[in-house]
Amino acid sequence: MIHEWRSYRLKPGAAGDYLALLADEGLPLVTRHLPLVGYWLGETGPLNTIHHLWSYADWAEREACRASLATEAAWVEGFIPKAFTLVEEQENRFLQTVASSAAFEAVVAGRRKPHPARATGAPLFAPACAALVSGEPIDGAVATWRVISGRAAGSLSLLPRSPDPVPSIPLAEGSSHIVLRPLAFSPL
Predict the structure, then answer these.
(1) How far is residue 183's CA from residue 52's CA, in Å, rounded to a whole number?
(2) Which pLDDT score, from 0 to 100, does residue 153 have?
(3) Contact at 8 Å (CB) between 19 and 183?
(4) Which of 89, 172, 184, 75 is nearest to 128 (CA)?
(5) Distance between CA atoms of residues 89 and 84, nearest Å
(6) Residues 39, 30: contact at Cβ < 8 Å?
(7) Is 10 helix (H, G, I), strand (E, B) or coil?
(8) How far apart are CA 66 and CA 81, in angstroms?
């Protein structure tokens, strides 16, 4: 499998607008075509940054999914022009799984499920945060990946959602920790 970790740095103050637009309009469009695994807003590290994870069987599936999304007029002519005026920078990495959990495997198995738009009055965010550790594998992670293309970071480990995602022990030298606030629709 190929896992695609995309990070978008938004204009200061634009995260709420971008994420509401995504949840209310973009989500049913993009998930009709792309296999969503997770979507988060960074609470630490570079602020105003959203992270999303997509999982493909292989490169051919990624190419076919992205080509299919490009034919979605409401995405190309509606969502993209509104949303991407709020984006300042994008980064993309391809990952290969080196360790996973039953929770991760279940989400990957259901990755092709389309998601509806957010219901009126529904919260934008899930109640508990997760965390992403770069540079060292972490025991008990939902999944750990090796970066195979994009800015190298050794490994990435996604930690499970928790009421307190702040690390209680020091990380290895050269590692970093980012608290991630999941969107309410995020499978992970």
Answers:
(1) 10
(2) 66
(3) yes
(4) 184
(5) 10
(6) no
(7) strand
(8) 17
pLDDT value at 152 more than 80: no
Give the pLDDT confidence of 160-171 residue by residue, as tens digits: 999 999 887 778
65, 35 in Cβ contact below 8 A?
A: yes
pTM given for the model: 0.94
Contacts of 168 (CB under 8 A, 6+ apart): none
- Residue 4 amino acid letter: E
Token pair of 25 as six digits: 């309009």
Please, which residues bridge with residue 40 across strands?
51, 182
**What are the contacts of 108-114 at 24+ separation with CB within 8 A?**
108/1, 108/37, 108/55, 110/187, 111/35, 111/36, 111/37, 111/54, 111/55, 111/187, 112/35, 113/31, 114/28, 114/31, 114/32
